[in-house]
Amino acid sequence: MVRSKFKTIFLSMCAIILAGSLISFPKESFDASIRGLNMWWEIVFPSLLPFFIVSEMLIGFGVVKFIGVLLEPFMRPLFKVPGVGGFVWAMGMASGFPAGAKLTARLRQEGQLTQIEAERLVSFTNSSNPLFIFGAVSVGFFHNPHLGVILALAHYLGNICVGIIMRFYGKETPDKKKDKHGTFILRTALSALHQTRIKDKRPIGKLLGDAVNSSIQTLLMVGGFIILFSVINKLLFHLHITAALAKVFDILLSSLSFPDMLSIPFISGLFEITLGSDLTSGVQDATLLQQAIITSFILGFSGFSVQAQVASILAQTDIRFKPFFFARIMQGLFASLFAFILWKPIYIRFYQTEQPSNAIPVSFFEEGTLLHVYFYKLLEWGPLFTIFSLSIYALLLYSRLRKSH
Length: 405
Description:
By secondary structure, the protein is an all-alpha fold. It has one domain (28-404). 78% of the residues lie in helices and 0% in strands. It has helices at residues 2-24, 26-61, 63-79, 84-95, 99-109, 115-124, 130-141, 147-166, 185-199, 204-238, 241-255, 263-271, 273-281, 288-301, 303-314, 322-351, 370-404. The longest helix is centred in the N-terminal third of the chain and has 36 residues, at 26-61. It starts with a helix and ends with a helix. The model is unreliable at 176-181 (pLDDT under 50).
């Protein structure tokens, strides 16, 4: 009871301080809101919406169940999750935050995952997508596409390590049934595909409408969190709270022989990964290796902004947030460790001097190439795509409300 009252008082005080800060720093809050809004409608919305819609349709058509049966022999021994986790993992890496959480929650609602399996799965299927790591961070902030190789390898290897560790999380529940696929795994997968499609009696038009509606609702929520945490991050800086917290981390960074100037970017990155990565790239006193290690932790930890998005999605199910939070700390540590381990054998060996003939290619992300052009076209046409999609959503919502009345 006392703990509950303390929590109420603490949350009330935080809300009062936030409201007072908004009044005290109106221009700074407005600028931070615009920054968050630009990030959402230029990059996040147009890059995530197609993945969300296609994912919903693949689930409805039974394709995810089909993939799940095929991947069961791989996902179950390695991560102790059903084969459908392979689809969530792939889509999470391809589309980025918070796709893994959304798909995990969706499959949990359909009963394809137990609570423990869902908590294991969501812990390692939320990651930054390659476009963000190479395009925004490596090229946009560091102006160094080669650094993206280290950041991506460290990030995704950290994901795998978290997944392997999380396989030991939770008590085992007896399987409802253990399918003995044997040599007829493809036939079983096709049967699962057909049965899933038959059970979902929605016509294609209704399924597509539901996919668009669900996806845009999720992205509107994501946009709200991005703007909110952009403002909070800015207000914490102006209230000198970021600087006060940074002094605590100065001790930790000094023990690792890192410059104190990295502490404020590190704190900012704990709240929002884009700002943290940008500030880290601008610290002149730090070596590139030190910047890569800090950025890898920020990308792995994901920031409280992304974690709040995931918590909001998981709240619609019985999936607990605490395992996901601890998994983010683990991934941040693993990613930092891998960045340090891989620095000499990969970055120093292949990219520090003139590239030898056996250098790891990153030409897909360099200036003038397809992905580089795609990233900047996304910045140019993203807002128009967002406005068009929101207009379609408004029409669909109006049509449903009209039919219901």
